[in-house]
Amino acid sequence: MEIHVIHYLIISTVMMFCGIYGFFTRRNLLALLISVELMLNATNINFAVFNRYLFPDQLEGHFFSLFGIAIAAAETAVAIAIIINVYRNVKQVLTDDITDLKG
Amino acid sequence: MSISLQEIAFYVVGACIALCSILAVTTGRILRAATYLLFVLFGTGAIYGILGYTFLGAVQLMVYAGGIVVLYVFSILLTRSDKDMKYRQNRAKLISVLATVIVGAVLVLFLTLSNGFVLNTIPQGVELPMETVGHALIGTDKYEFILPFEVVSVLLLACMVGALLIARKEKNN
Amino acid sequence: MDYTILILALPALSFLVLALAGMKMSHRVAGMLGTLSLGIVAVLSYMTAFSYFTAERTSEGVYPTLEPWNFEWLPFTSSLHIDMGILLDPISVMMLVVISTVSLMVHIYSFGYMKGEVGFQRYYAFLSLFTFSMLGLVVATNIFQMYVFWELVGVSSYLLIGFYYTKPEAIAASKKAFIVTRFADLGFLIGILIYGYYMNTFTFTPTEEQLMHAGMVLPWALGLMFVGGAGKSAMFPLHIWLPDAMEGPTPVSALIHAATMVVAGVYLVARMFPLFIGFAPNALHMVAYVGAFTAFYAAAVACAQSDIKRVLAFSTISQIGFMMVALGVCTAADPHEGGLGYMAGMFHLFTHAMFKALLFLGAGCIIHAVHSNEMETMGGLRKYMPITHITFLIACLAIAGIPPFSGFFSKDEILTACFQFSPVIGWVMTIIAGMTAFYMFRLYYGIFWGKENKELHEHHTPHESPLSMTFPLMFLALITLVAGFIPFGHYVSSNGHAYDIHLDWSVAGTSIVVAVIAIALATWMYAREKQPVAEMLAKRFSTLHRAAYRRFYMDEIWMFVTKRIIFRCISTPLAWFDRHVVDQFMNFMAWSTNAAGESAQPIQNGRIQSYTQWFLGGIVVLTIILLIF
């Protein structure tokens, strides 16, 4: 009936580093964004877990996760809008091809 | 030592999350990656549920799985991607990325394991009542969150308008 | 006397206006502006002189030294401060008159001479700058103000010599003048610093206590100051810049390189005269010997030159030598007891400024008429240019020392002072005076008589200059005629008391006889169409003639010293060191910075993914470090 806190943390760590790996290796912007979502989720899990673990009577971590989800949604919406706009202009969504703003 | 149903559920979900995370960042097809992400998000929602934060789990399912992933799928279909995302990777770069990631992961795990809460466990199964969440969300006292709630609502509005503006097709005269 | 500030302010103002807005003006407006401001300055100077010399003398029988303006500019200690102000005493008032008169004449003359030249406005702007600096120099209240204006004068001289900046000779001449005088000014500056350091003051009249403090270094300070004066006044061996400075426009030569700037050195010695006579009489006598040698050397060279402006330049050097000798032979402050030379030198400065300006302006008219400086293109010009001829003759007679022209009186005083000092110097100077008469009349006959270059003159008939050019000639000729009768000793003398000029007829008679003989010789040799004597002499003493024509190879000696010795033994190794050690070190620094940047550049590839990868790697490394330690 009891699960070690460490197990939660291991799961979130795996998620986090999968996100990081994807962020480093992917070249498609949408795939990059997917990796970012993985990282965000990993942190959200940590917030919730630590809230439950340290202060079960309070709700700070819980709400932090909640707002994190809201903000992730906003971020995704804007990022996808930008990606679509970029795609419309350069017909490509690969990081290597988007160099117009590079100094 | 008996294994409870909840424990079994947790480990199954955990394994599912880990596997799907890895697949989401290694698969060659972007649409599959989005699908694996969806599974990861489901799993995350389940974890919230196991922790007793059922409301948070529900929000996770609605916003992420229901909203964001659909958005991903739409945008993937709107943009032309190569079916196979196996781009030629520089071997040295790949090695360095892997080294960084693995060393980083090991480091974090080491810190977690050596931190002292190894033996501690989390009280399970106590569901956070919806009433408490509702009161805390729109209360004005200490540890109550009406202000961030309103701010997030403004932020969401702003980002909706911004997203529309950015993605809007410019009229060509 | 508060209005005296205007004497300085007006030329400065007109310089600013002409320099900043001159290009927007027409030639006429720009010239009128400069001339008008100079006219007001001249009137103010005459007013100052009149009211100063008609004012009451003090109880000691001298004219008071006034300071209508004095502004403490840079205070160092309570007694050591650099001021800017106006000092009026007999010699500065006299110089005000000389400068403003000659400058005004040159301004008027330039209307005709520079007509239609490119850069007419610039020319007038520089003239105003020069006049401002020169006036500031003579009214300086302290040695440092004098130095500041001294350098300003040098700059404006540089600018005006190089006025025709498209001509390589003019550029070379302006650089030469600048560098040589700057070299000499180094001595002046060191002298000033020694003076200031030991005396703790920059004023011309230190107190007894300060003088005691200076002690033995005062002669050194004064001697070094004289080096600066020698550079500016073209004393041997620093004279080499002055003949080349004739590359500038002729009115400029008249103003700067004949009448005013080159006598700044004489003025400096006169200004420091009380200190020279009281504490460094030997330094003063050195001045006399340098002056005498310069006078002789320049006179000898002048006898062989063919460029009329060069002849006048060497005659200027020679005459400044006379003034230096006059100051140098003084043995006491009392004009009756050996201080006559001071008055004589100042008097000669005054008269020489007038007739030498006249000579240069006349030469300008001639050059304007025949478009050449060379004597062989002239000859027989008297029938074409009567006014120029007569005024030039007056000036020649004045410089030769024929009564009643002004030069006679001042030169006679100098010779008298020389004979009082030592008969040797007296006779030497008398002979040089004879040489002066000889080469001046050689010049005169070469231009106006002698063999006419008919071919050239038929092709382009010489003509008399317009009134704007002849008026200054006539005005200056008038001054030359009457200036000798000014009771100069009443106004300026070594101790300030009135001194009656009385002619010593034994000296005067001798000098007149020598001058007349020299003129007669020149007439015999050069006045006729054919000049067999002159040619025969030139052939007989061809080595000497060529040496004199090449100015006794002084320029070559200087070139040898600078190029062969200084350049080769000092500058070249220094340049090598600079180029190969200092510069290379700097280059290495620049190169290594560049190389470091180049090698770090690939990291900055503009890919956010690799940046974040570095970022994460950094965090990992830092965490490991924190864990280990």
List low-confidence stretches of chain A.
none
Rg of chain A over CA atoms, rounded to whole Å, is 17 Å
- Alpha-beta content class of chain C: mainly alpha
Distance between termini of chain A?
58 Å
Instruction: State the total count of DSSP E strands of chain A.
Output: 1
CATH fold annotation of chain A: Helix Hairpins
Number of domains of chain A: 1
Mean pLDDT over the residues of chain A: 85
Biggest interface pair, counts: A-B, 70 and 85 residues
- Radius of gyration of chain C from CA coordinates: 29 Å
Give the percentage of residues in beta strands of chain A. Answer: under 5%
Low-confidence stretches of chain C: none
Q: Determine the number of helices of chain A (DSSP H or I, runs of at least 4 residues).
A: 3
DSSP strand count of chain C: 2
Which oligomerization state do the chains in this entry correspond to? heterotrimer
**What is the first-to-last residue Cα distance of chain C?**
85 Å
Shape of chain C: globular
Mean pLDDT of chain C: 86
**SSE pattern of chain A, N- to C-terminal:** EHHH
Enzyme class (chain B): translocase
Protein name (chain B): NADH-quinone oxidoreductase subunit J
Membrane topology (chain B): Multi-pass membrane protein
InterPro entries (chain B): NADH_UbQ/plastoQ_OxRdtase_su6 (IPR001457), Nuo/plastoQ_OxRdtase_6_NuoJ (IPR042106)
